[in-house]
Amino acid sequence: MADSIADIVYVLCALTSLAVALLMLRGYKQSGVRLLLWVGLCFVGMFLNNVILIVDVNIGPQVDLSIWRSIPTLIGLAVLLYGLIWESRT
Predict the structure, then answer these.
(1) Which domain does 70 fall in, by range?
(2) Which tens digit of pLDDT belongs to each residue from 75-89?
(3) Contact predicate 73/49, CB 8 Å
(4) What angle do CA 47, 52, 54 make, to 5 degrees?
(5) Neighbour tally for 53: CB within 10 Å
């Protein structure tokens, strides 16, 4: 029972990250505000993190995907940091 509730929460987190990413990228496409692009790409990384988390939890303790799970988030945050620095210089 607790595992199914946890899976539901993980899926909801992934869907929320995907929704935010799509809304930010759509907003960038419509307005051209580049900050929306950087935030949207960051949330794509967070979405991928959540998807790998769901796979990691369902595989079980045989395989540890924690390092692989952290890579998309790290890349997403690096893209956001780059975008924030880039936008502050222009």
Answers:
(1) 2-89
(2) 999 999 999 998 887
(3) yes
(4) 95
(5) 16
Q: Is the model's pTM score more than 0.85?
A: yes
Q: Tens digits of per-residue pLDDT, 34-73?
A: 999 999 999 999 999 999 999 998 887 788 888 999 999 9
Q: Round to whole Å and give the CA distance between 36 and 24.
A: 5
CB 75 within 8 A of CB 88: no
Q: What is the CA radius of gyration of the chain?
A: 15
Total number of domains in the chain:
1
Tokens of 59: 């595989």
pLDDT in tens, 5-38: 989 999 999 999 999 999 999 999 999 999 999 9
Specify the residue for token string 């880039």: 86
**Alpha carbon distance 28, 2 (integer Å):** 39
